[in-house]
Amino acid sequence: MQALTNRAKPVDRRPMTFMEKIYLPAIAKGMGITLKHIFQKKETVRYPEQKRPFSPVFRGLHVLNRDAEGRENCTACGLCAVACPAEAITMEAAERKPGEENLYREEKYAARYEINMLRCIFCGFCEEACPKDAIYLTETFAPAHYKREGFIYGKKDLLVPMPGEKK
Amino acid sequence: MPTIYIDNKAFEVKAGKNLLEACLSLGLDLPYFCWHPAMGSVGACRQCAVKVFKDEEDTRGRIVMSCMESVKDGLRLSVNDKTATTFRSQVIEWLMTNHPHDCPVCDEGGCCHLQDVTVMTGHNYRRYEYKKRTYTNQYLGPLVNHEMNRCIQCYRCVRYYRDYAGGKDLNVFSAHNHVYFGREKDGVLQSPFSGNLVEVCPTGVFTDKTLKEHYTRKWDLTNAPAVCQHCSLGCNVIAGERYGQLRNIVNRYNSEVNGYFLCDKGRFGYEFVNSENRVTQPLIRKRQSEAVNRATLMQHMSTLLSGHTLIGIGSPRASLESNYALMDLVGKENFYQGIPDDLVYIEQKIVDILLSGAIHTPSLKEIEQADAVLILGEDIWNTAPVMALAVRQSVMKTAATHTTEQVAIPLWHDMAVRELVQDAKGFLANMTVTASPLDEISASTMRAAPDDLARLGFAIAHILNPSLPEVPDATDAVRTQAMNISRALQQAKHPVIITGTSCWNNALVRAAFDIAAALDLTEKRAGLAFVMQDCNSLGLAMMRSSSFEKAITSAERSSNVTAIILENDLYRSVPAGQADAFFSSCKNVVVLDTLHNRTTERADVLIPAATFAEADGTFVNNEARAQCSSQVFMPANSEVRESFKWLSEIRSLKTTAGNGHEKHPDEILQALESKFPQFKGISRSAPPHDFRFHGARIPRESHRYSGRTAMQANIDVSEPKPLQDDDSPLSYTMEGYRGPAPSPLIPFFWAPGWNSGQSVNKFQLETGGSLKGGEPGVRLAEQTGVTPVFSRDIPDAFTARQDKWLLLPQYHLFGSGELSVYTEGIASQSPAPYISLSRHDAERAGLKEGDIVTVKSDGKAYSLPLSIHGSLPDGIMLVPAGLRGMDSWSWGGWVNISTVKV
Ligand code: SF4
Ligand code: SF4
Ligand code: SF4
Ligand code: SF4
Ligand code: FES
């Protein structure tokens, strides 16, 4: 068969020599590598005491944003849900009633908004699709939960707190 | 066929069309707004520009509006020409200057013709940076929402509302950049066809208010092709579901039935499916815990079956499958129609006429194309709304056709034709008991009692065919009118006679038949259309079972009766006294129904049935067209099942050799067909349940359906397996065959680049023509050319009696439907119960408007306020039929007024 690339390395199938058969030189070589690493700079960090800086394009847990006046941005247009490759977002729209203008920025809002974090692949398409700057992926990991239900994030988990309100 | 050259490619196209229609019919994407296949062109929006060239040498060409240019042999045009495409994108840019660009909050988003066209023209970036013009929106009633800022001034709404549907209260106001489409002031839209604005308007100005209550994007709906349940016309609809709730209904194009339009009852009357009043649990009454599970229910049913006389009561609103399953369970001789004797008699007459093959019964499309229409007795505005719309088109289009035969103006040239036609109208004779909105376009009207209307019919028949008997003692007025009408019918090439059952008078049916048959003898193809009462009245009548009265007699004969009542509120179908009598002579009453009503209250065993949206079923409409309505969604509650499934399971209790095999609806239809020859061919009304395209099913969901892994996470985090539909080739997934489905199985209209309902163009052979692969449904009654047997039995003239009135029902488009009033916006437009007398009768009895009158019907006394009716003939009492909570009365009987409270 013809090789697809020229990078394939043929396996050395020659029988082992006596030196190879006694293994000791190989073990000594391995120990050498290990010792070298003890004195080298460490690749890992001591999470969670120590945290690494996020890359500027890191995509973590979502939030639903509010505008400067504290009104919910999301208008339940459904574009994030339709963009989501994991089909992990679902929502139900409701009409803003008179008197609720301080709660919702647009005439429509999401009465229910849920993301299934077990399904989410943190691709950020939802953020890209959103025409209302409502959904953002933040620099937070999804925490661990004892139950799978805990990974279904509803509006109360996603909405950023009102200005002045503690979450 | 003329050949035209589009971008230097030769195409054969149909003569008489315009270039836009030709291009769209060829499957090309050409944007447009103001043209509508049902309304023609006015050239208002300038969106459909193409370039037309003089000849092969011409390279400059000129821009024309394709919707205003006729197809000519050898014509050369370019759709893709640079100037034409730039022109189109500039038009859109200009239309969009004031557009709010609020697709995310707009209900139209995702099924918006404006969005589609904007994308199609390639206008991507907005350059206009100034203040936008804004309007104040209006309150247009509980069904249609108004958001004027989104308007692009295409004029489709007013052209539809006023010109097509004959409405008066929507208009265009102001001028220039401020034209306003709305009402003079806030208020409920008066036309019962106003819901079509939602689909006619290419933008989000008019949207469905009932959908707003539980808004869902088009792409998120699970859709299925269904059949409207609210009258006998069987309009084709697409119903959409999400989260276990029916969310909206839109038109499903069928060129022979409803075409592009529905009535508001059909479009908005779906809320009963989501009602709190649904029966959700099998109940066995008079025991400690009434709610039972399926096993207990079946155990109990088997004790009710053995050793008992079974009586089955069928239903004109249940599917044929369910009715047949009940007949199969109780035996043919024990199966009764749950409607009164008089009605059964009239319906039998109609079935006999249709199945005899002596006449042709027209589709709604043919009624639209008729050139003279005679309505005999039926108040079609209220009992068959879309038929009234079709009759209106016949009246308006006949005049147009006559005029355009003389001058060389194509019919699609709407404004020019209107200018020419002015007030000329085709012939319509509206002969009914009371006034109707159709009167204003009628050449001839008459207000009379049903017998007198029938006599007029017989007088017409006699003139058309003098061998038929003359009407004895006919008045001069009747003679002249008969003369005029018969002349108009004789001059017509395609006359149509319409009658129905709502007058509870069989002479009308016979008279209408005599006229149609007499016309046929003169080498015309006359059509005779019947209007029935319910969505499957004709299907049930075709099973030829006995009436409810016969069921009472047989229940009284035996002391050990188990009655099984299928989806039928007897208190609405028969007079309350009779229903009571029946219940008291039955030992056990088993009721299968969808909603709690007075009949389900009398049930000893109550079984939850699925509504049309949760069931597959076949319904026979007024023209004997059997149409399949597919399941839109499976109820989350597994106790709610199709009646035929329950009944088949109950039947398997009787047979020892029950093999546990659930019958598919198409197998039930095959059984029906083999038992009753009159249903021959019905199993062809939709592909069988195992139909597949190379192994693939047809998905109910669009490929953009969202939230699959999250929607049901509140029930179970691991997403469930997609629901398995064993009864039809449709699937509950996004995957499957995406090509053109057979027309009875089209779950929604969509084509690449065409997200709005306008994508139906891609499903038609030609724009406004029939669907590719033929229209759904099978007609069970065709004219065979047998010699008609004339009736000749003329009733006596109606004479008002002293202190007695002929009791007739008045049907109300909004209010008379059992199911549609579950929609709040429809219930709010329903009249309050009343008793109506003519002015003269009221004066003679010394009654005033609003007096409380007590009337005894069938042993029960009813007190209702009097409403004096200007156009009602003397001697008749009119009572609204089927309003919520009202009993059915002995229609066609005589009643007197017992007491009066002022
Ligand atoms: S990040 Fe990607 S996968 Fe996660 S919800 Fe958004 S679109 Fe879906
Ligand atoms: S009418 Fe269409 S284009 Fe305009 S806002 Fe609504 S969805 Fe968007
Ligand atoms: S309201 Fe709709 S249909 Fe009427 S002119 Fe405006 S865009 Fe056209
Ligand atoms: S005319 Fe009848 S069948 Fe058609 S939409 Fe209206 S109620 Fe439904
Ligand atoms: S569609 Fe041709 S001008 Fe509007």
Task: Give a quick summary of the entry.
The complex is a heterodimer of chains A (167) and B (902). Chain A is of the alpha+beta class and 167 residues long.
Structural notes for this entry:
Chain A: [4Fe-4S] cluster 1 binds at residues 74, 77, 80, 130. The complex is a heterodimer of chains A (167) and B (902). Chain A has 167 residues and is α+β, with helices and mostly antiparallel strands. In chain A, 20% of the residues lie in helices and 14% in strands. Chain A has a domain at 62-158: Alpha-Beta Plaits (2-Layer Sandwich), CATH 3.30.70. In chain A, the strands form 2 sheets. Chain A has a 3-stranded antiparallel sheet with strand order 2-3-5. A two-stranded antiparallel ribbon of chain A has the order 1-4. The longest helix of chain A is centred in the N-terminal third of the chain and has 15 residues, at 24-38. Chain A is elongated. With 902 residues, chain B is of the alpha/beta class. Among the domains of chain B are: 3-95, Ubiquitin-like (UB roll), CATH 3.10.20; 278-340 and 547-609 and 642-652, Rossmann fold, CATH 3.40.50.740; 344-539, 3-Layer(aba) Sandwich (Dimethylsulfoxide Reductase, domain 2), CATH 3.40.228; 805-901, Barwin-like endoglucanases. Helices cover 27% and strands 18% of the residues of chain B. Chain B is built from 26 helices and 35 strands. Chain A binds chain B through residues 75-79, 81-82, 84, 86-95, 106-108, 114-116, 118-119, 131-132, 148-149, 151-152, and chain B through 102-105, 109-110, 212, 214-217, 219-220, 243, 704, 706-711, 713-714, 717-718. The structure holds iron/sulfur cluster (4 copies) and FE2/S2 (inorganic) cluster (FES).
